Amino acid sequence: MAVKIHTLLLLGLVVSFISVASAISGTATYYTVYTPSACYGYQGQGVMIAAANNALYNNGAACGKMYRVTCTGATNQGVPKPCRGSVTVKIVDRCPGCAANQLDLSQQAFSTIADPAAGKITIDYVQ
């Protein structure tokens, strides 16, 4: 029985390392007008949502996918220690002006993970 528990613990540790290793580092900003969206038109999708950069959006392939977004720090603008944690968001839109690896979060999602006064933060995100 002890061997089975040890094996399960080891497997859990390996899976958690793989999850952390596969996270994408980037930045996040926020927006406040949620409809219409590129994925769902005028159909609301709640407020824990995000717009994807062009590469992630991939001609709509990202629509409906869920991402766990974690604040990792401040950018060179805004408040020095903005982070509050993590949030799970649904991709509902495309952000044509976003840089590579940038997500544009809803204001509610952004304020869950960071002080909105920061305006822009560094993040890690994973599907």
TrEMBL record:
InterPro entries referenced in this protein's UniProt entry, alphabetically: EGC1/2, Expansin/allergen_DPBB_dom, RlpA-like_DPBB, RlpA-like_sf
Chief place where the protein resides: secreted
Localization of this protein: Secreted
The keyword rRNA processing is annotated on this UniProt entry: no
Domain Expansin-like EG45 stretches: 25-127
Entries under SUPFAM superfamilies matching the protein: Barwin-like endoglucanases (SSF50685)
Superkingdom classification of source: Eukaryota
The keyword Signal appears for this protein: yes
Keywords: Secreted, Signal
A Pfam cross-reference name: DPBB_1
GO cellular component, one term: apoplast
Signal peptide residue numbers: 1-23
GO biological process, one term: systemic acquired resistance
Protein name (database record): EG45-like domain containing protein
Organism expressing this protein natively: Morella rubra
